Fold this protein.
Amino acid sequence: MRVAFVQDIIQFAVPLGIALVAGSLRHGGHEVDVFVVDNNLDKTLRELEQYKPDAVAFSVITGSHLEYINIANAVKQKLNIPIIWGGPHSTFFPKIIEESYADAVCVGEGEYAILDFANSFDKSGRKIPANIPNFWVKTNGKIYRNAVRPRIHNLDNVPYPARDLFFNKYPLMKNHGIKSFLAHRGCPHKCTYCFNHSYNKMYKEQAGEKKVFFSRTPDSIVDEIKWLQKSVPIKTVAFVDDVFTIHKKWTLEFAKIYAKRCGVPFSINARFDHMDEEIISVLSKAGLSLVHCGIESGNEYMRNTVMLREQTLQSIYKAANLLKKYKVKLLTENVLGNPGETFEMAMETLKLNMDIKPEISNASIFAPYPGLRMTQYAINGGYFDGNFDKLESTYWDSSVLKFKKKSDKRKIYNLRCFFSLLTQHPWLIWIVRPLLYLPFRKLFWSLGNILDGYYTRKGMAYKLKPKEFITSAIHYLTNYRNSLKLSKDTTNRWEQKKFKEKEHTTIYPH
């Protein structure tokens, strides 16, 4: 089977979800390639026509789904081949199989599911298989809704991601010094703003799968890094797992093996309450340069009652001080504009960041994605009307929620734009605070992106060369935090040219 993976825009890192699924297919003897629209749908359609795929596949998050619907409709009109949907949006909205733009929807993990799908497709004479676990499909005029299979337990056996599909076409990804890797899958925590709780519940109900956290062996991780080093530069390894230090014994073993065999500076995602002095000490000696930690909210009620972080202020201050002691940089993740949040509560989040003084402080706007318990909390509280089509494909823009005070919405959005600056220079609050009332949304958004990019660069483990800095800066400002604009430009042209007779809307249950 020949599968073309289509992505909306290019970012710095290879999307590991697509790369892993593509790697599994290629390892199983199938042909794969990647095509990025990047605001030029006509060009992508011409490339697909030349490639002649058996199917086109997407990995979609809610917010970008409307653009992918537009792409899918265009592909259907031009090539009339099966469209396979995967990713978080498809997992929580498999009902899209009822639409004309979807022929198969992969729910949950995709590596082995897509391989079974492709094998059966070839054996049946290029027909969509009806009974592959993890897939909802439309074939022979019927819809088949299959349950999920148990999750992959032995992650060491999963083929390496097909990163070269991106590297060969997009030098920015190949030359960027930071390369992403996965050491674990899953998370046992029940934070309401994260999809993991709903994801775990789905697997428990459909596959009887109670275990939710799986790890690779440290040696297999280092093997992959050293293998990739042979073909591309790796100046920093970014482990993008939800929580890296969840099991102390594994973490200490990893640090020992990584220090001995690899030694490339690396970053991780962790919780403040999963890091003690022993863990931070051994990881820093192994090359840990940066830790991403979620504060999420400085307000006690919002953090532990609404978000269910189960995280004390004491654990935050303690771990932050230990990271400073061992000279490991800290990047905090914060969520503003939560359902029911006031401007004063958002300011508590800023103050906590000012107190612990991270090298980088990221602040995003809460997006009520499907499958999140906090989304249901927002709907129940009247903060969100349940229309997911309103969501943007990024969470740096303004909020779709209703606020108790209309003025709080503007102030919280503007605060996000100045968040990283104020964390580094708290004295500027007296100058910035009056600006938060002003309606200069686009100006502040652009300024906020520049400030965030500046402080993020300062947190990197290596110094960018002038050419790399210029290339990265241009991409960051023009692409990285911008969503695809097909709905306003290319899509309108396609609809006028090809789809005048039919309206294309979603029928998702809200």
